[in-house]
């Protein structure tokens, strides 16, 4: 890890200090003291990007293939530049345009990991920073709920429809007109949980030099799954447990900082 990466972790107040998803605290620590143009790839509804846009020191842009997510984020932050991505298509940005890019639990959803990482390398300026998080392969990987739609499609449909309604299930998992099945790109049939060596190999193949490798959580899937199915005080209690698990353990999620060298 170089001194610049370390310095960024000392800058700014940590707005994600108690957030159950530790990847947001990791990304904030890496980016809060930086300047320049930042791209959040796979920004979703902006859980991280909106906070970085409002309280960070970088100039933010967001991009995602999901039109509904982008519409929701645009309604809340009309001044935030957003671009819709085509699944599997080149990024619609010029070479060396950004000083930093975040990919927060996105790589495991795309149809071609090397293609996306290579495109990310292209749009980063020399010396630019990539903030990357993915689920890590570990003893409880079999609990990954994002694979339920592939492993147990009928059960997944029943539970999801019970929790969110049959129309929402249809819009997210049956209507593939946006080339997405839920948050997964059409053409990908697993939600990958990566070994550390495998992820670092992908990054180096795409031209990146990893500088920091860490992680979070161990038992969180045992809490995340019931949290997805409930709400109110029960969900808040489960999320506090997820947060504590993320502070105590480092096995279930993989967090990496990497540089595009000149």
TrEMBL record:
Taxonomy, top ranks, is: Bacteria, Bacillati, Actinomycetota, Actinomycetes, Micromonosporales
Which organism was this protein described from? Answer: Micromonospora tulbaghiae
Which residues span the membrane? none
Query: This protein is called what?
Result: Methyltransferase domain-containing protein
Q: Which GO terms describe its molecular function?
A: methyltransferase activity
Keyword Methyltransferase applies: yes
Does the keyword DNA-binding belong to this entry? no
Q: Which PANTHER family match?
A: METHYLTRANSFERASE, METHYLTRANSFERASE DOMAIN-CONTAINING PROTEIN
InterPro entries noted in UniProt: Methyltransf_Superfamily (IPR050508), SAM-dependent_MTases_sf (IPR029063)
Which domain of life, per UniProt? Answer: Bacteria
Alphabetically sorted, this entry's keywords are:
Methyltransferase, Transferase
Query: What biological process terms from GO does the record include?
Result: methylation
Q: Which residues form the signal peptide?
A: none
């Amino acid at each position: 890890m170089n001194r610049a990466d370390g310095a960024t972790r000392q800058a700014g107040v940590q707005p994600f200090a108690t957030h159950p998803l530790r990847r947001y605290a990791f990304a904030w620590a890496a980016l809060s003291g930086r300047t320049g143009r930042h791209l959040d790839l796979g920004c979703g509804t902006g859980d991280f990007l909106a906070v970085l846009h409002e309280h960070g020191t970088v100039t933010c842009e967001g991009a995602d293939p999901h039109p509904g997510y982008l519409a929701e984020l645009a309604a809340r932050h009309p001044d935030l530049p957003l671009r819709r991505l085509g699944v599997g298509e080149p990024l619609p940005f010029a070479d060396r345009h950004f000083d930093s890019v975040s990919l927060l639990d996105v790589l495991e959803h795309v149809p071609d990991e090397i293609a996306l990482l290579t495109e990310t390398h292209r749009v980063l300026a020399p010396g630019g920073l990539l903030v990357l998080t993915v689920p890590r392969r570990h003893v409880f990987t079999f609990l990954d709920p994002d694979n339920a739609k592939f492993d147990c499609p009928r059960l997944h449909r029943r539970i999801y429809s019970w929790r969110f309604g049959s129309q929402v299930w249809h819009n997210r998992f049956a209507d593939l007109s946006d080339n997405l099945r839920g948050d997964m790109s059409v053409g990908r049939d697993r939600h990958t949980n990566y070994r550390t060596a495998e992820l670092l190999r992908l990054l180096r193949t795409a031209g990146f030099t990893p500088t920091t490798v860490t992680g979070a959580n161990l038992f969180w899937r045992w809490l995340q799954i019931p949290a997805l199915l409930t709400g109110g005080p029960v969900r808040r209690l489960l999320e506090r447990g997820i947060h504590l698990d993320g502070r105590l353990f480092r096995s279930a999620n993989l967090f990496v900082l990497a540089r595009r060298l000149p």
